[in-house]
Amino acid sequence: MSNQDDLAQRLLEPLREEPSGRPRFDVDRAMAEGRRLRRMRRWSITAAVSALTLVTAGGGTAVATALRDDDRRPVPLPSVTAAAPKKPTCEMSTLPTDGVAKALVTAGDPSGRYLAGRVYRPGKPVLTIVWRDGKILSRTAMPGSDATVTDINSLGTGVGTSYGGDDRIRSYVYQEDKYFPMSQVGATAQAINDAGVVVGSAGPAEKPFPVRWPYPGGEYERLELPVLATSGTAKAVDEDGTVVGTVSIGDDVETGYLWLPGSRSMMMPLPEVDGRKADAFWPVSISGDLVAGRAVFDDEGGRVFASMTYDIRAETYDSIVTALASTALVNKNGSVAGVARRTPVIVSGTVITRLPVDERKEYDIESFSDDGRVVAGSSGFTKDEKTGNEPILWRCQTA
Amino acid sequence: MPSGSDSEYLAYVRARLPALRRTALLLSGDMHQADDVVQETLTKLYARWSRAAKADNVDAYVHTILVRAFIDDRRRGWWKVRLVGGPPDPEPARESPYEDRETVRVALRRLPPRQQAVLVLRYLCDQPVHEVARILGCSDGTVKSQTSHGLDRLRQLLGPTAEAAFAARHR
């Protein structure tokens, strides 16, 4: 059994349960309804095809016209000084969804203007959605199923992925309310910078290789792997073109790798915590000289993580003063946003700012602006065994 | 009076109902939703019984119907029906097995439905990769890819503390 299989079984083990109570299904009713379906089948297929054609032709034009908007230039916001970090004051709000109750934020841009996510309309396909300045800019469905906008830049150009009818993953570019398929099927676009450089991975799922598209409409090029590496993925790209990701060598756990401008690349060194060298470092985000992520320690008791930042220029690690869940989003000022003990926080040096929340809900963070003023993510909560989500925006100000 | 074909259908479903109900429960984590999924599966199976009965592997055929019914149910937003009209329930007490189940279930539900189905079929229903691929109508590679993506996301959602706790507790 692989490590992945072993961990998955242990994580999911609490869900093993046996059915209980009197069944609510009814075989006689199923047979009666099944007979009706048999009679209706031919009619329904014909009717459904006609209806689909009408909706596509009429609805698409109307939506495109309603959403046209030419003001896409980012407006720079005054930045928060990092030298003397002060606790900002933050307010939480729910992003608009056109009345749809369930929606998520999946990405945001460094300026804090653009956010992207998904809207789950009851009884209808899931829509991808883009907000600008907290208002809905676009609600156009990315083709395919399980569509996710994985990143968006300060010009409002996004990238994302979905699964096609053949169940193969495909990447798309979002631009001006439209989604354009990227060149090769089977590649995952993970991140885009303001210059339009896109990075991600391609190849077999068990052995992906890191890739970079020089521009969204181009063909991807492979990022070079170190000698002996068997696979790798690119996870984030900075504005200067530095790419951070992970590589796997032999049977070792994947660990951080940097592809620097000028065709240089390097393994990220392994950090030490309390005198113990980590088994790996898993990068999550990059901004300027800083990479944020998690040091990984494997032992017989399980896997333990430590949240850290790595300074590329100084080649040193710093511990983040509180343990964050997997998301650690670093900005240009060196602040990091994430979730600590179920509470979304901004960490600036030793200053921890807890973002306001509804205590009954859990939160994910997906976006943190360079000026530290905009954080976005989603809430999650359970009601009657069902999961609800809301797209959340926090706006922060430093007095 | 059932016809000959109806008799075969009835004989089949009576023998397989416990297994179908269990799979539906593991997928959905909710007995009511599980029974709804089984009801839909039985209906679709009856409508297609003449074809299903000729399949090389009827069980795989029926599981495909069941898993697709579950995925469609998730995409239709079944959860909303019960969400309307009140605040969420308070969180259960911490450090209990019940909390384990709830925490993992909530995290699992936040995955896209296909990833959720892949993880449940592989690790709770103990189906091999090729069988999951057959049920979902996709390639082995896609199952592996969805497994990897789903597990990564699940680990992100659970966070390091929860992950370490679960790993240690259920080792």
Task: Characterise the protein shown here.
The complex is a heterodimer of chains A (399) and B (171). With 399 residues, chain A is mostly beta strands. Chain A has two helices and 30 strands. The longest helix of chain A is centred in the first third of the chain and has 41 residues, at 27-67. Chain B folds into two domains: 1-81, Rna Polymerase Sigma Factor, Chain: A (Orthogonal Bundle); 95-171, Winged helix-like DNA-binding domain superfamily/Winged helix DNA-binding domain (Arc Repressor Mutant, subunit A). Chain B is built from nine helices and no strands. In chain B, helix 1 runs antiparallel to helix 2 and helix 7 crosses helix 9. The N and C termini of chain B lie far apart (53 Å). In chain B, 46% of the residues are buried. The chains are: A mainly beta (399), B mainly alpha (171). Chains A and B meet through helix 1, helix 2, strand 6, strand 22 and strand 29 of A and helix 1, helix 2, helix 5, helix 6 and helix 7 of B.
Characteristics:
heterodimer, A: 399 residues, mainly beta, 4-stranded antiparallel beta sheet, B: 171 residues, mainly alpha, Rna Polymerase Sigma Factor, Chain: A, Arc Repressor Mutant, subunit A, 2 domains, 9 helices, 77% helix, globular
